[in-house]
Design goal:
Number of domains: 2
Strand order of the largest sheet: 2-1-11-10-7-8
Distance between the termini: 132 Å
Shape: elongated
Strand content: 5-15%
Helix content: 40-55%
Order of helices and strands: EEEEEEEEEEEHHHHHHHH
Length: 344
């Protein structure tokens, strides 16, 4: 044999757990200690499989009469011709077999941006937290609150962001060996700042252009913003499957929105989390046209016809509601209450 053979044991996600180099044929695989590749898998036989050359000088992996056999692409056979990208399952063990002349893919561009580490992103995140905390307190403050009120808001925001970032940094340290606390703090701070910005811009835009859905469905954008923040946290913590991660988080966000709308519909027969626009801004902010009195009366007439139609379709419901209302009202006192009988 002119080339070395590499037998790789893989995780379910395709990551290499162990790589063995063998320079002779045949190569025996199993749990017994006289094998060239020793497996620590109770679902494999003592002598499970063998890698060798067939009569056509092709490299094959053949079963040695094991109970669970060899499976590739959900198909079990006595032997398979080896391919460099094929993954074979022996019991619960996944193997990939490659020769030294296997052509690897080109290197992947490093987009990690290692300069964005340490104190610089952490200080940037703290600055974002400071601005966000002060603005979120100052904008609704009509009575010129005291300094303690602003300090309490800053302490709560800083405490949440630092604690949240610390959890992600510990998670990254345990699984990848890199904490990257500064970058996690920046991601959390940017997420909080964007949530605060969206809260004010959505209300202002909804009022200016009469786009009520921006306020009545305000929870759903927040769910997707949180999903985006989690995506960057997972990437920083060392996730190596970004495309799969996007699908998972998008599915979770959609499921969260559906659950939210279902709960709101059960509670109020409306899909929106608010029935009307709850934030009112100065009239000078409005950019949409004003509605005339005739349009208002026409809308009221349309609503009246709708209510009258529902009463005609469900007269029992209307009478039941009226009876419940009458039963709930207390009886009015009479003008001539009975006087107690005087004893002679």
């Amino acid at each position: 044999m002119s080339h070395s053979i590499f037998v790789e044991q893989l995780t379910p996600d395709g990551e290499v757990l162990h790589r063995s180099k063998v320079t002779h044929l045949p190569i025996t695989i199993g749990r017994a200690y006289d094998n060239d590749i020793i497996l620590d898998d109770p679902h494999t036989a003592a002598h499970h499989a063998q890698i060798e050359l067939n009569q056509l000088d092709e490299l094959i992996i053949a079963d040695l009469g094991s109970y669970n056999g060899i499976t590739y692409a959900n198909t079990r056979e006595n032997f398979f011709v080896v391919g460099g990208d094929n993954i074979y399952r022996l019991g619960h063990t996944r193997l990939r077999i490659r020769t030294a002349d296997y052509k690897v893919t080109a290197e992947v561009t490093d987009l990690t941006n290692h300069r964005w580490e340490g104190m610089f992103p952490a200080l940037t995140g703290l600055l974002l937290l400071l601005v966000t905390g002060l603005l979120s307190t100052w904008l609704p403050d009509l009575n010129q609150g005291t300094l303690s009120k602003y300090l309490l808001e800053l302490v709560s925001v800083f405490g949440f962001a630092i604690g949240w970032s610390g959890i992600w940094a510990l998670f990254g340290k345990l699984f990848t060996g890199h904490a990257r606390f500064g970058r996690h703090l920046f991601i959390a701070s940017a997420g909080l700042a964007f949530l605060e910005l969206w809260e004010h811009l959505s209300g202002l835009t909804a009022y200016a252009f009469s786009w009520e859905s921006l306020q009545t469905f305000s929870v759903h954008p927040i769910i997707f913003i949180c999903a985006i923040v989690l995506y960057f946290h997972f990437l920083t913590a060392g996730n190596k499957r970004p495309h799969r991660l996007k699908i998972y988080l998008a599915a979770i966000a959609i499921l969260g929105s559906v659950i939210t709308m279902t709960k709101e519909y059960q509670a109020s027969n409306h899909l929106s989390d608010e029935l009307y626009m709850s934030r009112i801004y100065p009239p000078s902010v409005r950019l949409s046209r004003d509605h005339s009195l005739e349009e208002f009366i026409a809308d009221m007439q349309e609503l009246k016809e709708k209510v009258d139609g529902e009463r005609k379709d469900n007269p029992e419901k209307d009478s039941t509601e009226k009876d419940n209302k009458d039963a709930a009202e207390p009886e009015a006192p009479t003008d001539n209450p009975e006087q107690p009988e005087q004893q002679n």
